[in-house]
Amino acid sequence: MSVSSNRASNCARRLVQEKLCNLLFNNNQKCITVKRHFGSSYLPQTTSNSFMKIYQGNNKFGTFINSIRHSQASSTSSASSISHHSRDYSSVHTQQPAGPIREYKIDPYMLLEDELKYIFEDIRQELHEGTNQKELIQIAEYYFGGNGKALRPMVTLLMGKAINYHIHRENSPRTVDAQRKIAMIAEMIHSASLIHDDVIDQSFSRRGKPSVNVLWNHKKVTQAGDYVLAIASIMLSRLKHDEVTLMLSAVLNDLVQGEFMQLGAKETENERFSHYFTKTYRKTASLIANSCKGSATIAGADPQIVETAFQYGKNFGLAFQFVDDLLDFVSSSETMGKPTAADLKLGLATAPVLFACEKYPELNPMIMRRFKEPGDVEKAFELVHKSQGLEQTRFLARKHCLEAIKLANKLAESPYQKGLVDIMDLVLNRMK
User: Taking 80 as the threshold, does the pLDDT of residue 265 lie above it?
Assistant: First the structure.
């Protein structure tokens, strides 16, 4: 089967999946359990057993699952299968579960499986179409091999679909396609910034493999980062939406300013925290916040909902970076896919260090000289672990996670809105 046929089939399947997800969600079922087992087919053979374990003793729901499984086995073609399943779903809509339902977490990556499945492939395709210079393509697509978390596309699409449901109670294919383009652009901006960061920081590894600057010379790598941004800009212009163009263009401004801020240090404690927060917003949170805002804008949301999307993305991004700064002190190089204590080695004082200064003021001169003297990195690392810096950083991340959840709860209930809530647990408790 061709790629286009596969995608057409996936599109039709996704419409059926969404109908069932919303059906179950609106009847107090936890749709993630359905979606987790749907994946690349409507309902795998193992689904009935899995559901029966989850809803043990719930005979009516078991009957419902078996009826879908039976209809899947009896379908003879993709077209008739879609029609047949649709009738089955509506016919069992009135079958309510007899017992209490346990709470299950939404897995956003499974919920958005079809939208995310080809996202790196589609980015690589865009990069290939923009030039015939093979080495430029090779460098530009190096970080689009599928090893990344695709975090920014995921949260952009999750917010977009939650907004679509909030406004229209459905996801229009045209709107979702535009939101997916924004998700791709967000990932391209992020990866371009990584390419430039690796040149500036002289990195050795990223995502568990040699960083791009190790394999090619700095001039070529820098130009490849610029090329990724150029293609992202072309894609942005194709959306033909001035507001969204302004939002995502502002991200590039923030990234550059954030990088400049990272090169400096402040004298006083208050100045340092303010400097750190602003730098963190510009380097990390701005991209997520404006991608969520763009996704809401292109859906036709009103200004209040657009602002909710922006603030959610901002709090998500800040929490994510605070946890990242925490992991630099507690995770292993193998888990992270990059060296640990990297920020200290680069002369950067992140939240754990700034909090540790409250107990160990001897860190202040180290911060001002950017940990350049022999033994500074090791001593700072030790003092952070002896202080409450790590716990205070986690508390700060949790505060922003809770704020993001509060904002997500302003949206109408749907599988995607619940995903926006549940994803914060993944942000707070991730290990890499």
Answer: no
